[in-house]
Every structure is written in structure tokens, then in C-alpha cells.
Design a protein that fits this description.
single chain, alpha/beta, TIM Barrel, eight-stranded parallel β-barrel, two-stranded antiparallel sheet, 12 helices, 12 strands, about 15% strand
Length: about 325
């Protein structure tokens, strides 16, 4: 009898055709969402130093960007505003201005590209003088319920502008239920809620805060009193289940790459459509390594996205979305 193994798993890796036929997880352009930073003005494209290849766009340039996304068959765009200092306030009232930057951008996008899904960020950090996601009292404490009331107004203003999906990313308790009730009461039955249910107080948000110009307003203060402790995963399941009970349609894990175990647990234990956000720090690290010649950008980026999918994510917010769509098309 042969001393060699009868089962040789390397047979399934021997050639490209077999590897493709036996691949368990696939990445497709339909699973990509492109996050975009928007600014006031016209014909503006501002480079973001800490995020090579990503720009802040005025609304007219956003329309051009959206046309590219449609040509690439990317199904959704997520908007993140850069709010000018004079419009920031203690309560972030500009967040629900019907003629605010996000609201105008949503209307412009839906007028030009009705089939492109528009996702809006529901959070106060771009709008508050503190740079926090909520209203602060005199001692710097984030006031949960007072913040939720503003978030509800913000979400309603986005729905009225035509947003397909509102995405509360603030991590205040009870906000999903409050937003759902308000949307239903106002007749926005088809406006979906993407809940940032497991959003961690990560150290990988720095480039994003540069992009939306909130770092200086934070003045070194963190968000640990409302975003999750990155040592916890049981807590993530509790957060997700609460948001499901309150009416979330889809849940989010953020960040993605360092939290594959959380993505897997959420998908397996909760069963709801689960999105993941490959955040600015993850993008910046890969780009820095690629620009230094330490990694192959295409191969490393596609691997990172496929692994997020393998963990259980149905879709991924990623700054690589446009490049990945092109790379996938080439393959």
C-alpha cells in the first residue's frame, strides 16, 4: 500500500481553473459601496494628504464621480460632509437644514441617477463645535437623549431630500428606534436604516477625521463613552440585537479588517444583512505600503476585501471601491 496520502488537497490548488471552480468566497462589484467626502463650492476637488487618491468634492464634481460609479456598476454611494466652521454649533442644528450640504447633494444625485443608492451619515460630529457625535453638557458629558432628538430631525431631512438609506453612526442608545418611529410616522416606509451597531472606538479613524476636518475640534478628546471598547465582542452582539429589535434593516461593523471575528459573529448569530466599513486608517496603511513598494496595491487591496467578505459581510464600504471595480472587470 502506498505510503503517500490518498487525499491530496493540493490537487484542488494545482491549476487556475480548479482553484476558481473551488473558491468558496467571491468578491463582486455589487458588494461595494463608495464613501465620498463633499464640500461647499463649485468645481472643487481637494486632495486629502492622509488618504492618497481620495478627494473632497463639491456637489458638481460629486455628480461627475457618481457617473463613474454608475459606469462601473457600483450600486451605492455614502456621503460624508465637510462642514465649514461658522456652521458648527453646540447642538449641530445645521445637520437638519433642508438646504444643507448633504440635503442638496442627495437631491442632485437622485435627480441625475435615480437608481444609484444614496446612503447618508446620521451623526453630529461634522456639525458640532466639539467634534463629538453628540450634544455636550458643561462638563463635556455626551447627552444621549438630547442627541437622539437631533439625530431624528437629521434623518428625516435626509429622507425628505430623497436618501434611500440613512445610516446612524453615532452609537447613542435608542436612536434606531427613534429614527424608525419618525420615518414611519412621516410616511417614509421604504427608507432603509443601516445601523452602525458595532462601531468601535478605534485608533484607525485618523485620516477620516482629517478628511472631514473634525480632528482639531476634538482637541485630543476621545469617543470611548459611546463607541465600543475594542476588547469586546459579546457586547457587539448585544448592540446588534437591540438595533434589530428597534427596526434596523441592515447592521454595520466598523472597522472591518481588524474585526473579522466580530463580522463573523454578527452574521452567524444575528442573521441580518451585515455590512462592514474598511475605514480610512486601513486604507491609508495599505496605500502607504504600496507607495513604498512594500505591497502590491491591487493584490493586497483585493485580498483585504475578499477576507472581509469571507468573514460574512454582505457589502463593504471601502475607499478602494472604484479601483476594485476596475480590477474585477479586468479579471
Amino acid at each position: 500500500m502506498s505510503t503517500f496520502p490518498q487525499t491530496r488537497l493540493r490537487r484542488l490548488r494545482h491549476d487556475a481553473a480548479t482553484r476558481q471552480l473551488c473558491q468558496e468566497t467571491h468578491l463582486h462589484v455589487s458588494q461595494l459601496i463608495y464613501p465620498v467626502f463633499i464640500i461647499e463650492g463649485k468645481n472643487l476637488r481637494e486632495e486629502i494628504e492622509s488618504m492618497p487618491g481620495i478627494e473632497r468634492l463639491s456637489v458638481d464634481q460629486l455628480i461627475l464621480e457618481a457617473a463613474q460609479l454608475c459606469d462601473l456598476n457600483i450600486p451605492a454611494i455614502a456621503l460624508f460632509p465637510v462642514i465649514e466652521g461658522e456652521l458648527k454649533s453646540s447642538h449641530g442644528n445645521e445637520a437638519y437644514n433642508p438646504n444643507g450640504l448633504v440635503q442638496r447633494a442627495v437631491r442632485a444625485l437622485k435627480a441625475e441617477f435615480p437608481h444609484l443608492m444614496v446612503i447618508t451619515d446620521v451623526a453630529l460630529d461634522p456639525y458640532t463645535e466639539s467634534g463629538q457625535d453628540g450634544i455636550c453638557d458643561a462638563n463635556g458629558e455626551i447627552l444621549n437623549d438630547e442627541t437622539v432628538s437631533i439625530l431624528v430631525e437629521q434623518a428625516l431631512s435626509h429622507a425628505e431630500a430623497g436618501a434611500d438609506m440613512v445610516a446612524p453612526s453615532d452609537m447613542m442608545d435608542g436612536r434606531i428606534g427613534a429614527v424608525r418611529e419618525a420615518l414611519e410616522s412621516a410616511g417614509f416606509f421604504n427608507t432603509k436604516i443601516l445601523a452602525y451597531s458595532a462601531k468601535y472606538a478605534s485608533n484607525f479613524y485618523g485620516p477620516f477625521r482629517d478628511a472631514v476636518n473634525s480632528s482639531g475640534y476634538l482637541q485630543g478628546k476621545g469617543k470611548e463613552t459611546y463607541q465600543m471598547n475594542f476588547g469586546n465582542s459579546d457586547e457587539a452582539i448585544r448592540e446588534v440585537k437591540l438595533d434589530i429589535e428597534e427596526g434596523a434593516d441592515i447592521v454595520m461593523v466598523k472597522p472591518a479588517g481588524l474585526y473579522l471575528d466580530v463580522i463573523h459573529r454578527v452574521k452567524k448569530e444575528c442573521g441580518l444583512p451585515t455590512f462592514a466599513y474598511q475605514v480610512s486608517g486601513e486604507y491609508a496603511m495599505l496605500m502607504a505600503a504600496a507607495e513604498n513598494g512594500w505591497l502590491d496595491e491591487k493584490k493586497a487591496a483585493l485580498e483585504s476585501l475578499l477576507c472581509i467578505r469571507r468573514a460574512g459581510a454582505n457589502a463593504i464600504l471601502t475607499y478602494f471601491a472604484k479601483k476594485a471595480a476596475i480590477w474585477l472587470r479586468e479579471e
